[in-house]
Amino acid sequence: MQFNQALTDELNLILKFPSDSLLQGIKIHKDAGEEVVAAVQRLYEKGIVTQADGGYLTDLGHDLHARIEVVAQALNNTEAK
Fold first, then answer.
1. Which helix (DSSP H) or strand (DSSP E) does residue 55 occupy?
2. CA neighbor of 53 nearest in space, from 42, 63, 64, 67
């Protein structure tokens, strides 16, 4: 499985949610880019966010957020090992 643009948009959107509080969410406005609006709709349909325009991460969304952060940090690490 490869990361296509739609999946990348979803991953990036999940990372925009605050990780330090379960009581914070995001709102995607209708004037956001088409790719962002489409990504949040797909995340809602998959049960990852609570609203079609963002809202809060579900339990699944929080689990994914933590895992995506680990992957992003590992891939963005610029130190040579």
1. strand 54-57
2. 42
Domain extents for the chain?
5-76
Farthest CA pair distance, the chain: 44
Pairing between β-strand 26-27 and β-strand 49-51 as defined by DSSP bridges: unpaired
Render pLDDT for 18-35 as a digit per residue (tens, 0 to 9).
988 778 899 999 899 999
Cα angle, residue 50 at apex, residues 47 and 51 outer, rounded to 5°: 110
pLDDT of residue 64: 96
Mean per-residue pLDDT, 38-58: 96
Matching residue, tokens 């339990």? 59
Q: In this structure, what token pair is assigned to residue 53?
A: 């325009």
pTM for this predicted structure: 0.87
d(CA 26, CA 53): 8
DSSP 30: T
